Amino acid sequence: MTDIRELTQAEGRQYQQQTTGRDMARRNYLNLDTGILLAILFIAVVFRFHKITLPLVDGFSWREISTAMMADNFQQRSWNIFFPEVSWTGPGPSYQGREFQIVSYITALLYQLFGWHDWYGRVVAAVFGMVTVFSLHRLTALCWGKMHAHAAALAYALMPATIMIDSSFLPDPVMLALATLGVWLFVKYWAGGNGWLLPLATASISLGALSKPPGLVAGAVIFYLMVCWIQEKKQKQATRVFLWGLVSLAIVAAYYSWAIYLGRNYPPFHIAGSGGYIWDDGFWAYVKNRFYVKSAWNTWVWWFYGSPFLMLLAVGLWIPPRPAEDPEQRRLSAIPYVWLAAATILYLAAAGEITANVWNFHIFHVPVAMFSGHGALLLATLSPRAVLKPAVALRAICIVAVALAGSTLPLVRTMKKPVAMKGKLLGEELARLAKPGDLVVATAPDVGDPIAVYYSRARGWVFPPGGGDADWSKFVADDATAIAQLEELRAQGADLFGVTKNATDHADLRFFEHHVGVIDYLDKTATKLVDSDDLLVYRITRP
Question: TM segments (predicted)?
Fold first, then answer.
């Protein structure tokens, strides 16, 4: 009897040791995964916060400035988030039909707390970019496993496009962060998580779509998983998702109906992003332009990805991950394909708008990062099975080095060139010369860019004046029309006129060559204040 008791105790101690050993191994594995995720987040922080105080003079200047102006007007004129207002169409109010202003409103709150700095909007965008990195990692882990999660998050952290957009004063980082967070929360709910995840996911995806319409692409993933539940005869769960989806769509539709109403009924009668779609230009116009594929390809190669990331993307798309044995896991593994397909459909309908305003490609970057990460794992392991070995780690380091040298560093440097610096200098000169309440008229190096008005810290107009349906990125045909526009602005109270001497419109016409008669007119009717190598500024005299 004693021998049996001792044997039982010995077996118990052995089992306890084995269990403790497994628990320790599991904890060590979790700690390793956590450490890798923290390292990826640190890398993402380094690239997004490098030169975060850069003025709004990079390649996205035009769109950033409009967002920054709305933040200014929230803080200086009205905190009503439903009336976003710019400062480049006169004394105002200059309400415009815009997306829900999350990034500009948060930035305005920072202005109120800490004072005005033009780079606060970049900080807000970068913080949301970090949310995307984390959410993408967790979503990929549910779809394809932890090794793929590390690879996808690192790909997103290092892609030139994501670094540039996530550190720009734009609504797109908020849109993608909230959409990705919402999809991750919903997938957790779908896989058996707590019921409170559904309203949280709905709120996050809804805010993402309100931040910018491409966020609706995330809804395709929700619809796909709802259909999976219907096929499994889980009608109760599917019905609950359907009802929450209706609530989300109703909120999004109500807001954008208001934005359209605002843009159509208040001067300057402008709705952002309201052109360039297939229903505007016509199907055959899209076919004639080959759905703008050449423009998109040039953006991908020379700005957003570069050859190394495009090669990783191609490999990841060509060789899919190993199919899971569990049917539920197989359904989850299709999510990146669903997201990519929905984003592609969006592109086919809005290629003109997306290629004209390239930050709209941001909705693609979740599946692009996932497939690029998968491609990197395939090349590192030389096998569909991801196993961490010394040789695999060495190949992974080489792949990251090639991506950094061939894509990340040169393309980010290109995109962040201060191409609009002279427009900023013009704005600062106008600010120096302006009296309280003065209205300015300004023509920046990129005609139509309101950067000089923004940095003048005053209100006024771009020149040629814009805001409605007219194309203000091109000079008018003759001096007589331009002079008539100046006279109209003077009648509305314009006090200062400034132009950079390299100002060029989108038809490659230079102001100082195309509008010689306008300069002669100003010399006769206004007082010249500045005539330097870069700038020309006049004080407009009253009749």
Answer: 29-49, 119-137, 174-191, 211-229, 241-261, 300-320, 332-350, 362-380, 392-412
Q: Which residue is it, tokens 């120096």? A: 432
- Calculate the alpha carbon distances from 267 to 68, 78, 264, 378, 380 in Å: 19, 17, 8, 55, 57
Residues near 477 by beta carbon (within 8 Å), at least 6 away in sequence = none
DSSP state of 78: -
Give 176's Cβ-side CA count (13 Å radius): 32
Rg (CA), the chain: 27
Assess whether pLDDT exceeds 90 at residue 139: yes
| CA-based max dimension of the chain | 118
Taking CB atoms within 8 Å and a gap of at least 24, the contacts of 488-492 are: 489/441, 489/461, 489/463, 489/465, 490/540, 490/542, 490/543, 492/90, 492/91, 492/439
Q: Which residue has the tokens 């190598």?
A: 533
> What amino acid occupies position 238?
A
The DSSP result for 168-183, as a single string, is SSSSHHHHHHHHHHHH
In whole angstroms, give the CA distance from residue 34 to residue 142: 15
> Distance between CA 526 and CA 518 in Å, rounded?
11
Cβ-count burial of 442 within 10 angstroms (0-12 exposed, 13-18 middle, 19+ buried)?
buried
C-beta separation of 126 from 167 below 8 A: yes
User: Measured between alpha carbons, how far is 213 from 221 in angstroms, rounded to an integer?
Assistant: 16
DSSP notation for 416-444: TS-TTHHHHHHHHHHHHHPPTT-EEEEE-
- Quick one: pLDDT at residue 269? 87
What single-letter amino acid sits at 394? L
At 214-253, the pLDDT tens digits run 999 999 999 999 999 999 999 999 999 999 999 999 999 9
Tens-place pLDDT, residues 485-533: 999 999 999 999 999 999 999 899 999 999 999 999 999 999 999 999 9
Cβ count within 10 A of residue 18: 10
**Tokens at 38, concatenated:** 């923290």
Please count the other Cβ atoms lying within 10 Å of the Cβ belonging to residue 391.
10
pTM of the predicted structure, to 2 decimals: 0.92
Return d(Cα 364, Cα 354) in angstroms, integer. Answer: 11
Q: Which residue has the tokens 């900080």?
A: 123
As a whole number of angstroms, the distance between CA 449 and CA 459 comes to 14
H/E stretch holding 387: none
Structure tokens at 356: 């004209």
Omega into 367 within 30° of 0, i.e. cis?
no
- What is the distance between the alpha carbons of residues 264 and 259, in angstroms, rounded to a whole number? 9
Question: How far is 309 from 503, CA to CA, in rounded Å?
Answer: 35
Query: Is the omega angle on the peptide bond into residue 418 within 30 degrees of 0, that is, cis?
Result: no
Q: Of 179, 165, 259, 171, which is closest to residue 216 (Cα–Cα)?
A: 179
DSSP code, position 266: S
Tell me, letter by letter, the H, E, C secondary structure of 482-503: HHHHHHHHHHCCEEEEEEECCC
Whether 468 and 268 have beta carbons less than 8 Å apart is answered as yes
Q: What is the mean pLDDT of residues 375-400?
A: 83
